[in-house]
Amino acid sequence: MADLSTARQQQVVATSPVLRQLPPASRFVLRGGPQALVAAVGALGLPRSDSPCRAVRNDGRAALWLGPDERLLLGTADAAGETESLLQRALAGMPHSLVEISHAQGAFELRGARAATILNTGCPLDLDSAAFPVDMCTRTVFAKAQIVLWRTGAETFRVETARSFAPYVTKILALAACEAMS
Amino acid sequence: MSATFRAASGGRIDRGRPLHFRFDEHDYTGFAGDTLASALLANGVHLLGRSFKYHRPRGILAAGAEEPNALVTVRRDGARVTPNLRATQVELYQGLEAQSQNRWPSLELDLGAVSGLLSPFIPAGFYYKTFMWPRNAWQRLYEPKIRAAAGLGRAPEEADPDTYSSRFAHCDVLVVGAGPAGLAAAAAAAASGARVILCDEQPELGGSLLSEATVHSEAVIEGEPADRWMANTVRTLAAHPRVTLLTRTTAFGYFPHNLLGLNQRLSDHLARPDSGQPRERQWQVRAKEVVLATGAIERPLVFPGNDRPGILLAAAARTYLNRYGVLAGSRAVLVTACDAAYQAALDLHRAGISVKAIVDVRSGSADGVLPEAARRAGLPIETRSTVIGTSGRLRVSAVRIQRLDASGVPAGPARRMGCDLVLMSGGLTPSVHLFSQSRGKLAWDESLGAFLPAQAAEPVRSAGACRGVFSLAAAVQDGTRAGLAAAQSAGITVAAAIAQMPPPETSAVGILGALPLPRGIRTGKAFVDWQNDVTSRDLALAAREGFRSIEHVKRYTTTGMATDQGKTSNINALAIVAAELDKAMPQVGLTTFRPPYTPISFGSFAGFARGELFDPVRTTPMHDWAARHGAVFENVGLWKRARYFPRQGEDMHAAVARECLAARGHCGLFDGSTLGKIEVVGKDAATFMNRMYVNAWTSLAVGRCRYGILLRDDGFIYDDGVVARTAEDRFHVTTTTGGAAGVLALMEDYRQTEWPDLDVWLTSTTEQWAVIAVQGPSARRVLEPLLEGIDISAAAMPHMSVARARICGVPMLLMRVSFTGELGFEVNVPADFGPAVWQAIYDSGQKHEIAPYGTETMHVLRAEKGYIIVGQDTDGTVTADDAGLSWAVGKSKPDFLGKRALQRPAFASPYRKQLVGLLTREPQCVLEEGAQIVSTPQRAAPEAAIGHVTSSYYSASLGRSIALALLRAGRARMGETLYVAMPDGDIPVQVASPIFYDPQGSRLNG
Amino acid sequence: MLLIDCPYCGARPELEFVYGGQAHVARPRNPAECSDEQWADFLYWRDNSRGVHAERWRHTHGCGQFFNALRDTTNDHFLATYRVGEAAPALERVARPRT
Question: Up-side HSE of residue A9: CA atoms within 13 Å toward CB?
Fold first, then answer.
C-alpha cells in the first residue's frame, strides 16, 4: 500500500494523461433570489439557464448551478476583481450574497475513456453520459470528501475540492487511475 | 503422476497445463481449471478436515459455495494467510499451498477426536449446561480452552499487505447468477437495449451448465447443444458494449432500494499477482431492476454416519466428473429421494464407475424418465429402501441398506454393501438468500417442499431454479421472461413478447428432514449440519426441552451458524423440528437470511480506506513551514495542527513553557487557519445573527468584533467564536475548529426552515483564509512594517476591531483579537499567500524574539485567562451562566436560540455546576483532566463527586499549576478547600477565580 | 444505502444526505409564551411511527437544501419528497407488489 501510494502515484499525477491539476482560478459563491442569479449570469455574459445541476460557460467563465439559491462562478485567476465589480454593479439593490472563495478550493481534471470509471471508485453517482451529460455539475462525495463534479466534455470531468481535502482526493484518484490503466 | 482418479477425457480442465500444489506437507499435481477440491479428489484425497465439535474425519460434501466441511487455509506468505476458504471454490494455481484446519497433531491422527468418543456426553446446549459453575470459571478457564480446542482456522497475525479497491456502478438490470436462467435473462435484457451487469461467483460463466457432460451430453437449449448455446450466449454478451460481465464476483448482500454488494476476487487465483493489482474489488451496484438467478442447492440426506469422507452430494459428484474429469470413487452407492439425482448415477456409470446400488428412499416405484433410463442401463435400483448406517474410518467403506415397510419404517434384514463413494440427494432447495435479504416475503410451497420467493419488497424478479423452475428448457425460458420483463420495468421498450411465468416443477421434490430409523431418529449420529456437528438427535432434544421458535433452536443447537450459514442444513433442520413439534414447516418459521452470502474479507470492506487514506488528512497552508521547523502535530478532527515546536533537547513541557513565556514576554506566532469561518451576508444578516447567537448584534458597529456564543434551543452552549462585522450587511463569523460544519448546518437549518423570509445567505470561507495569530506585547511592532493602508495603533485599532488592508502586497482582513490575554492580531490572507505572509511576519519578528507556538501553548495561555474551550470545559450540559458568560447574553432581545430554555427553574438553580479555577495546595502538582472533586478528605465510603477538572496545565508564567473545573455551586465556594480524589490519595485544592493571569485585562488593551 | 429523491436534484444516493429528524415540528413563534411542557414537547417529543413517517432530510453534499419526505419505516420506501413549506401530499401512491 505504502509503496503504491507514494512513488507510483506521484508518477501518475505528474505524468498521467488521465489526471492533471488545473491552474488557479477565481471562484465566487453567489447566493440569492432568482432575480439576482439571473442578473449575475447575464452580467458575466453567460447563457441564461435555470436548469438544476447544469453549468453554463463561455470563454474563460462558467456558472455552476449548485443549489436553487447558489451558483459557483468560475473564472481565470486574474478575473476576480473584474467579476466582483461587474456583479456589484449588476446586482445593486437585489438581495444576494457574493463571497470570494478562490483560494478555498483546488481543481483537477480527469480525462479519458476510463475517467468515469475512475471517479466511480469513490463517487456514488451514475456517470453514464445519459445520466450525467456534458455540462452537468453537482456537489457530491468522493470517498470521505465532498467535491464539486462538472462534466466538461464527453470524457472530461472537472473536480473541485476544498483545498485541505485535495491531497486525499487526488491520492485515491491516482490509485484508481493506476488500477484502471493497468 | 498420481492422478489416478482422473477420467481419461472430458471436463473443462486444461490437461496441457499441469499445476503443482501442496496440501498438508504433501505435493500433488492438478490441472488449470481445477479447484483445490477437484484436484485433491483427482489425487484420491478425500480426508480434508476434522469436524468442529467432535473432530470427526470429514471430506468434501459439495462442489460449490455451500460446502460446509472442506475448509482450508491458503497461505502465500507470512502475511497472506486466508483461513476458512472452501476448497470447492479455491482455484488451483502453480505452487498453491493449503492446509487443513481444526486438527492436531495431524489430519490422520487427531487427538481431539477423543471428544468424539465423549459425544454421548456433548449433546445440544452442552456448553450452556455444563460450564455454568463456578461462575468465574467460564471466563478464565472453560472459554479459552474451548476456543483453543475448537475454532475454525486461525486469523493471520500480520497486517494485510494487499490492496483492495471499490467501485460504484449503475445499471438497468443486474442479473445475479450466470447459469442457464441468468444467461438467458442477461441476453434478453441486453438485446432489448438495457444496460446490464451479470455477475457470477465462479471463474467461468455458465453455472450449472458447467456441470453438464462435455461429451455425450444430451442437454439441449433452444435446439442446440447446451455447451454451444452457453458459449454463444457468453460471446454475444461479452461483445455487447452495454453489458458488464463479472466473474469471480459474489453478490453477497442485498440492501434497500436495489443496492447490491458485489465482491470481485481479482488476484486470488493467480500464482503471482501483479504487485499493483488489488486483491479484491467491492462493487456497490444500484440497479433499476434485479434478476436473481441464483440456482438451487442440493440437500444432503440425514442418516447415521452420513458424514464420512467419500459421501458426497450427488450433483457434486456429477460436477467433479463432468466439469473436472474427476472420478470421486470407483464403487458407488446412490441414495436418493428424487428422480433428478439418477442423472449422476448414469453419468458415473458411463465414466466407468461401478454403481453398486441406487437406494431410492421414496415410497413410490421410481418410474420416471431418469429411473427408467437407469434401469435400461442395468443399474441396480433398490426402491422403498434406506440407509441406516455406514462404516469406514477415514473414508466410507460400506453402507447398510434396509427395506422400508408399508408404514415407511426400516424393517427386515439389513444388508451391508461395500463401496468407496456414497452419493446422496434429498432434493433441491432453491437459493432464496438474496431475495430474502431484500426483505421479500417467502412462501412455503407444499407441493415442492420448498420456500419460494413470494411478495417482493424491491424491484426484483427470480428466475430458474431459485424459484423452483429446475429443468433446463423451462429455466432458460424463465430467464428470458425475467430479463425482458426487467428491461421493460426499467423503462426500456421491449420488442419481444414476454412469456408467462412457468410454474415451479416437482421433478426435484425430495425428502425433508431425517430418514427413518428402526428405533426413531433420536438414535444414531445422523448429521444435519456438518459444519457445526449438529445431529438430528440434537434437534429433537432441543424440541423436547421446550424450544419452539426455530431462531431459538438455531442458537441453542448452533445449527445453521458459522461460515456456511446452513446452506445445506437449514431446511432439514427445520423439517426435523417441525416433525418433533408436530407442526407445519411455515408455522415453525425460517431463520432470517442476512448478508453476507459467503464470508467477505475485511479488506474488501475497507477498500482504499486504510493507512494514510483511512480518513482525509487536512493540513493548513502553513503546515509545511511548521513541519520544517520541527513541529509535533496533533489530530484535531481531521486536521493536523502543530502542537508545539520543540527546540534541540526540549520535551513538550519545556517547549510549551518557553513558547508561553515568549508570547507573554515578546511575541508568539500561531496558525489559526483551522478555525471555522462563515460569511453571513444579506440585508437581514444582523437580524439573523440576533436570532442565532445570544449576543446583541444590532449594536455592533461595522469594523468591530464581538465574542459570540451559540446555544442550542435546549439552552446549552453549542459553539463560540469571534464575530466581525465587516459591513452593514456582512458578518465574518468564526467557529471552533471542530464545530465548523455543525454550526453551518445549524444556521442553514434555521435559515431555510424557520426563517425563510430573511434575506440572508451563508457561505463557508474556512479554507479561503490562512489565519496567522500574532500575539504578545511586541505584536504591533512586528506587524507594522509589513502593512499598507492601515494604522494599527491602540487608538486607531482598539481591541476587538476589524479592518481590510494589505500586508506584504496581498489583501488582508485584519482583526485585533486575542485568545491569549495579550495584545493580539489575527491576520487573515487568502490561503495561497499564507506561507509567504507567515514567513514575512516571522522574519519581521526576529528582532522581537518571536516564537511560533502550537495548540498546547494556546491552551495554556487561554486557560491562564479563564477562556473556555467548547467541548473541553463544556460538555453539552453547560449554560452560558454556568460558564460565567452571562455578560454576553443580550437579555433585552425578544428571542434567540436557547432563550426560552433559560427560563427553566433548573437553569436558575444555585447548585448547578459552574466554571471555577482550582489551585493545588502543592503548586507544582498538575491535576489530571477529568479527575473528580469531593468535599471531604479521607472518606470511609464512596462519596458523590461535586465536580470535575476540565482543563489543567502547568503555567510557566505563574510558576505553578492551574486548573479549570466545573463545580457545583462553584462561585459560592471561592476560597474553599476541596479534594481531587485520585487512586493514590486526595489532592487538596483551593477554589479560585478562573482568571489566573492579568484579571484586569490591562495587557489585552495595550 | 437508500436512494433519495431530492426535490431539486432528483434521485441521489443516501451518502449525499443528512437525516434531519421528524418533519413539521415548527419552532413556536413566541417561545416566551410557551409553558415548560410546551417547550419540552417542541424540543424532545417525537413520533416513533411504524409505517408512514414525515421526516426531514438535507441534501448536504448536493444542493444543500432541507426538504421533507414521507417514508414507510417498515420497509424504507419513500412515498414522497417535497419542499420545505409545502404540505405533505396525500398518501395515494403505494409500493407495487410483485414477484
Answer: 17
